[in-house]
Amino acid sequence: MEKKKRSFQMPHTFIIIFGVILFAAVLTMFIPLGQYDTKEITYMQNGSERTRTVLDPDSFRYVLDDNGNKVTKIAPLFGTEDFGGQGILNYVFEGMTVGDKNGTAVGIIAFILVVGGAFGIVIRTGAVESGIMRVIAVTNGKEILLIPILVVLFSLGGAVFGMGEEAIPFVMILVPMFIALGYDAVVGIMCSYVSTQIGFGSSWQNPFSLAVAQGISGLPVMSGAWFRIPMWIFFTGLTIVFTMRYAVKIKKNPESSVAYQSDEAYRKEFSKKGNELPPFTLGHKLVLLTIAACMAWTIWGVVSEGYYIPEIASQFFVMGLVAGILGVAFHLNDMKLNDIATSFERGAADLLGAAMCVGMAQGIIIILGGTSATDGTVLNTILHGISQGMQGFPAVVSAWLMYVFQSVFNFFVVSGSGQAALTMPVMAPLADLVGVERQVAVVAFQLGDAFTNFIVPTSGCLLGALAAAKLDWGKWAKFQIKFQAVLITCATVTVILAVVLGLS
Length: 504
Known about the structure:
This protein is mainly α and 504 residues long. The protein has 20 helices and 4 strands. It has helices at 13-30, 91-96, 105-125, 127-139, 146-161, 167-180, 185-201, 210-216, 225-252, 264-273, 282-305, 309-329, 337-350, 352-367, 378-389, 395-409, 416-434, 438-451, 460-468, 473-501; strands spanning 34-35, 38-45, 48-55, 61-62. The protein has a two-stranded antiparallel ribbon with strand order 1-4. It has a two-stranded antiparallel sheet with strand order 2-3. β2 and β3 (48-55) form a beta hairpin. α3 crosses α13 (337-350), α6 (167-180) runs antiparallel to α7 and α14 runs antiparallel to α19. The protein is globular. The N and C termini lie far apart (68 Å).
């Protein structure tokens, strides 16, 4: 009998998150609780004055008991009243119910399910498939040119108005399109979600992270743009080159793709059609026009009206409802009235796993005590300890350590504005102490916060994008680790260059 070749199998995302939960629980056994005081700061954004509550970096202190000893609070197996009702084995429920509709776990979960349901209806009409086949016919061998165009557009979206969760619906359209063009799901994700995060991290005006970080650091939002705009051009160009080289490789050898198996369902669906173009009726065109109108509506809402997750979810629900009505009215794919409901249900079900991961990942923060600066938490002590450990190094080394710290910290606090509010009040004065300009500290924050967003399994937006592409995190990570290595190298050079050039 031939011996079966054993190969390493990447654990499921649920398993990885549970392992991190256990690791966080172990940390609570040894790391004492720490807390900060907070203060109000004001800063200018888009010509208006904003206020934000941030921690006071000079106010750190350990939580002490009656005898003056440092206090540790070991995470219990199940929630207790003393631990806020939250424990190791109820992290799933507690994580899924954290926060409110505006961007925290429960809001992102609802957003993912509503968007998934809406696109379930759109896909049921068959309009997307018909549109993709028309794109293939029009490009006719020049499809590789779609990559630089899409990367630039999505990167601009991330740089200008902080596009992130909004990319998930685009993944549902671009992934099957690129698979039909002979590429794979990875190319679709790179041209959409990853590109938004490249723009997010190299932005000169991003309102959700850069503006907050600059404001906390006492810097004008647009200051340093002379450095950041070339930085955006470089990293966007780098993404284009990396993606195009990968796409050419996959085109030559599709089986080398990490998504080859998961893409099989798409390939079978397109192969059924053969070389004949599917019908492209007035109904199909109206559905696609509805999608385009929704995208334009969303961009307008985000840029002009400050729309965020609740409003955007409602916009896509309207899109799905209109597409369903058109599908029934024009008998697209023999749609009946009940198909609107069943398609919405099926579309939401496809993204249920990603939605659950969002809650599970939030459980990591729960075990570490949460992100409140004024509460006694393990996370506050970790933040203080790392900041103390960065002192005593040359300016270049300290700046690079800030970048490494922000990259690692992003595993625990994925929100850009949330991470800025927690870390920049510490990093900005620390930069003064170690001889690093505050602008450089902000650049280190930008690059560290954003570029790990498309590999950490605790990012709800990433998991939503992967679920939309029907790609496991483990397989994605196998591909993404190479891109991360390139980004880490280039980000390191960028931070060092910022120090050398005296960015201020």
